[in-house]
Write a structure and sequence with these properties.
With 191 residues, the protein is an alpha+beta fold. Helices cover 30% and strands 18% of the residues.
Length: 191
Amino acid sequence: MASTSSVNLGKERMRPSKVKGVDEGLLTSFKQARALGASINEPIVMEKAVELGKELGINFVPCSGWLGRCKRRQRIVFKVVSREAASVDMSTVDTWRVSALQQLLENYNADDIFNADQMGVFYKCLTDKTLDFKGNVCSGKKQTKYRLTVLVAANMSGSEKLPLLIIGKSAKPHCYNTKKLPVEYAVNKKV
């Protein structure tokens, strides 16, 4: 009887692809696209697989199971293209939150404490995630600068929510009538 001490029972066996030509063509296309810095997501890979199947005369309809196995065989993973590094020491933030913030909030009613935050809506922008090979450093191209800035604000109790404030570049956008929208619209040429 063979010893099972050196066998990894939790490891799946790597099955060869049933559509090897599609896999090989996909890997070549993938390498070329990543070399150019293109962001690649799963729907793009699936569409390319269908296209390659047609070129090879195969009626191939990829599914998520096939895609998962293909990614494992080729050691491809989904990554975030870039991220801002954390620049604040969290222990300092936690100390301030426990001591100073609590003392400030004691003097006010929850209805009188508001929180506001801004977010950018990049409406002509590619995703910041892509498929890439394990171990590769992931970098991308500059993103488009078409954006709207949205300000969201509400009080602590949730009883009052201010209308959204949208800031855009165009004084009179052609796509909608800003006077009839349920939001406030402002213009800033630098947005």
